[in-house]
Amino acid sequence: MHLATDMHGSFGGGDISSTLPDEVEVTIGILALQGAFIEHEHALQRLFMAPSFLRQRKGINWKFSTVQVRSTEDLERCSALIIPGGESTTIALLLRLSSLLEPLRAFSATKPIWGTCAGAILLAKEIANPKKGGQEVLGQVSVRIERNGWGSQVESFEAPLEVPKLRNPDEPFTGVFIRAPVILSLLDDKDAPIEEIARIPEDLLPAQSCDTNTNKEDRHAQALVALRQGNHFLTTFHPELTEDDRFHEFFVVECVLDYVLKARGKQRL
C-alpha cells in the first residue's frame, strides 16, 4: 500500500493543505494462477468507474487500482487480495510452485482477503473430506467447509439471495453456484466473531453432506453462503460471474477501506 504524502500546496499565497482531503492509494490484487481472475478484475474496474461509487469517503480521496498477482513482487504491491473460484487443490499447488504460499500466509494474517468458491476453501480453517494427501489452506476463517457440497458441475444452479447489508438491499442478488462448497459448521473463535452476510433458503441445501451427524445449529451454518470474519470475506458462490458489482463494493468499502484506515491510523501514532 502506498500512502500519498504530498498535499496540494497553497493557493493565493495561503496554505490550504489542512482543508484538503488526503489522497490514499489502494491496490487490490487478484490471484491470477487459475480460475475466474479476469472476471474479478473486470468487476472491480467497473465498480471504480461507476458514477455511484464514492471515491471520497471519511475525508479521504481514494485512488484505486488492480493488479493480477502471480509473484511475491505482485503481492507486495497489494493492500488486499481476492482469491477467485477455480479448483482449490490446483490453486494450492500453483501457489507452492510459484513460491507464493508462505508469503500469502503472512499476508493473510493481517491484510484483507476475499475468497470466492475455491478461494473460500483456501481461507477456511478446516476442510471436510479433503483429497488424498491433504490440502494446503490459509486457515484464516473459522469454518469447516466441504468441497463440491452441492455435487458436480451439472448440478450447478442460480438462486436469488437477500442481502440486507448490500447497497439497494431490496434488490435480490443472483448467486451463481458452480461446484460450490458448503459451510458445514462454524468453529469457536471468541476473538473474531463471524458476521453473516447472506444465506440461501434451507430447502435448496444438499440433502446430505460428508458429516452425517448434522444438528440444527450446523444446518443453520450450512445455509450461510457469504460471511465476514475480521478483514476476511468468504462467498461460496461466484459474484464475479454477474454484472452486479455490489459484493465487490461491500468488500472494498467494508473490509479493505476499514483495514487501510486502521493501518494508516497506527502509522500516524
From TrEMBL:
Highest taxon, organism lineage: Eukaryota
The chemistry this enzyme catalyses reads: L-glutamine + H2O = L-glutamate + NH4(+)
Which Gene Ontology molecular function entries are recorded, alphabetically? Answer: glutaminase activity; lyase activity
Q: Which UniProt keywords apply?
A: Glutamine amidotransferase, Hydrolase, Lyase
* One Gene Ontology term from the biological process aspect of the record: pyridoxine metabolic process
Give the signal peptide, or none.
none
| The UniProt record lists the keyword Lyase | yes
Question: What EC number(s) has UniProt assigned to this enzyme?
Answer: 3.5.1.2
Top EC class, one word: hydrolase
Gene Ontology CC: cytosol; glutaminase complex
- Record carries keyword Lyase: yes
The protein's matches in InterPro entries, at most eight in alphabetical order, are given as: Class_I_gatase-like (IPR029062), PdxT/SNO (IPR002161), PdxT/SNO_CS (IPR021196)
Family per similarity comment:
Belongs to the glutaminase PdxT/SNO family.
Name used for this protein in its record: glutaminase
The species this protein was found in: Pleurotus eryngii
